[in-house]
Design a protein that fits this description.
Blueprint (H helix, E strand, L loop, with lengths): L11 E5 L8 E5 L2 E5 L6 E9 L5 E10 H5 L10 E5 L5 E5 H4 L3 E6 L2 E2 L7 E3 L14 E5 L18
Parallel strand pairs: 2-11
Antiparallel strand pairs: 1-4, 2-3, 4-5, 5-8, 6-7, 6-11, 8-9, 8-10
Bound molecules: the ligand Nc1nc2c(c(=O)[nH]1)N[C@H]1C(S)=C(S)[C@@H](COP(=O)(O)O)O[C@H]1N2 and molybdenum atom.
The site of molybdenum atom has 7 residues, from loops.
């Protein structure tokens, strides 16, 4: 699924080195689940700006564990097309795997640690603000048919 209203012209992802201190994440595929400790993951930085429905644009340098590194450790087969990102308050975003694989579960923004209540936060180039899920608990791989609407698999709170 495309996000025509998102800004991607400033997107990039570069390797960074940093001590890892990111919460465990549960990866789910069908009935299988696996808890992953990102302690050994390489960190990456995603630089992007996001467009909120209000028209406000905000951005920054987000650092954390690459979603691609986490999904390499996911259970299940390779049929998945989308990733459901479950966060605090049952905020759920559903993004294409292509979009998700460019992202990180960020624990730092710029020079600052994200507040514990907000981390880790899903951030990926080209993903709109409402889908930058805070306090990610669970990543769920799902397979959608070509005619299915990813938005039917979301529960986005606070979207104005
Ligand atoms: N877990 C969780 N993540 C969330 C939300 C939420 O309600 N719960 N709101 C989203 C929306 S709609 C926006 S615009 C941004 C707001 O991020 P900010 O508080 O850093 O401005 O977070 C997104 N991530
Ligand atoms: Mo929002």
């Amino acid at each position: 699924m495309d996000h025509p209203d998102s800004a991607d012209e400033s997107s990039r992802a570069v390797p960074t080195q940093s001590p890892s201190d990111s919460p465990h994440v549960t990866l789910v595929a069908g009935d299988d689940r696996r808890v992953v400790d990102p302690a050994d993951a390489p960190w990456r930085t995603v630089t992007d700006s996001f467009l909120c429905a209000s028209g406000e644009r905000w951005g920054g340098e987000w650092r954390g564990v690459p979603v691609a590194w986490l999904l390499e450790r996911a259970p299940g087969d390779d049929a998945a097309t989308h990733l459901r990102i479950h966060g605090a308050g049952d905020h759920v975003a559903c993004v294409s795997l292509a979009d998700a694989l460019g992202g990180v579960l960020a624990v730092e923004r710029g020079d600052d640690r994200l507040p514990p209540a907000d981390r880790p936060r899903f951030v990926a180039p080209g993903v709109v603000a409402a889908r930058t899920v805070k306090a990610v608990r669970r990543l769920e791989l799902i397979e959608l048919a070509p005619d299915e609407d990813a938005e039917a698999y979301e529960a986005l709170a606070n979207v104005d």
